Amino acid sequence: MSEKVAVVTGGGSGIGRAVAIGLAAHGYAVVVAGRRREPLEATALKAAVSGTRTLPVVTDVGQPSSVQALFARVSHDFGRIDLLFNNAGQVAPSVPLEELTYEQWKLVVDTNLTGAFLCTQQAIKLMKAQQPRGGRIINNGSISAHSPRPHSAPYTATKHAITGLTKSTALDGRGYDIACGQIDIGNAATDLTQAFAAGTMQPYGQMAVEPRIDVRQVVDAVLYMAALPLDANVLFMTLMATEMPFVGRG
After folding, report:
1. Whose CA is closest to 41, among 16, 65, 12?
2. Residue 83: which of 160, 14, 3 has the closest Cα?
3. Which of the residues 28, 102, 155, 224 is marked catalytic?
4. Which of 75, 156, 166, 222 gives a 20 to 30 Å CA spacing to 102?
5. What is the gyration radius of the CA atoms in the chain, in angstroms?
6. Block means of pLDDT (10 residues each) for the chain, length 250 residues?
7. pLDDT confidence of residue 1
8. Which pairs from 189-195 meet CB under 8 Å and 24+ separation?
9. What's the confidence (pLDDT) of residue 150?
10. Is the dihedral of CA 46, 75, 230, 60 positive or negative?
């Protein structure tokens, strides 16, 4: 097939939806995966305006059987995969670490880390077997891995681990024309960060408004990474609102 095929997890809203639509506008057939059917179908409908094929697939990325079914569908319907955007993410309640329940911790780990691993594993199997072989995996990390917010232990721990998964995948994929990179995003304007515009808790114990960036900037960054030939790779990219409290003593 001449078209390239992309899988976007967490594709029902936010960054995942925006990236799926952006990929479709640039000629990709797009498979959008997530837990809720209606938002996935809405994303697929918006992406289909570009005239490319779209496929919503209800998936729980934390469950091996669900991920296997997703990639079996990709293989059956499209015959290959050129890009995986590991974007599915989950946050825990913003409470002191010692008050978190095991179930709250596990849900974040299962989605953010185990989900990315399971999807990467299945994508690599397809990328090794297909002709021409190879492809690209982009992990959605977070600047939280480097500078955590208060009361964010599960999210920060998983995003820190994603950095290790990115490096290992990039290394293990080298011999098979599989490139892997990561984009760490700071304050993209989505529903998830809506509260930042009103004020969010800072490490020094006070509330402060944080600037956000248009999610289109994230889409453009992912498109740039995706468009590179497989002998070139952006291993890590940090994309953030210039004035957000990340570097220095903000």
Report:
1. 12
2. 3
3. 155
4. 166
5. 18
6. 87 95 96 97 92 95 98 97 96 93 97 98 98 97 87 94 98 98 85 67 69 90 98 96 74
7. 46
8. 189/213, 189/214, 189/215, 190/13, 190/14, 190/15, 190/18, 190/215, 191/13, 191/14, 192/14, 192/91
9. 85
10. positive
Q: Are 6 and 31 in contact (CB under 8 A)?
A: yes
Cis geometry, peptide bond prior to residue 132 (ω within 30 degrees of 0) = yes
Q: In angstroms, rounded to a whole number, what is the distance separating the alpha carbons of residues 11 and 18?
A: 8
64 vs 195: CA distance, rounded Å: 33
Tokens of 12: 């029902």
Identify whether the C-beta of residue 188 lies closer than 8 Å to the C-beta of residue 87: no
Query: According to the model, what pLDDT value does residue 194 have?
Result: 64
d(CA 97, CA 154): 9
User: Which contacts of 95-99 are long-range, i.e. CB under 8 A and separated by 24 or more positions?
Assistant: 95/151, 96/151, 97/151, 97/153
Q: Which two tokens stand for residue 166?
A: 């990115």
Give the integer Cα–Cα distance in Å for 59 and 52: 21
DSSP letter at 188 equals: B
Are the CB atoms for 109 and 158 separated by under 8 Å?
A: yes
Residue in the block written with tokens 């590179």: 228
Cα–Cα distance between 107 and 100 in angstroms, integer?
A: 11
pTM above 0.85, yes or no: yes
DSSP 148: P
- Matching residue, tokens 């997890």: 9
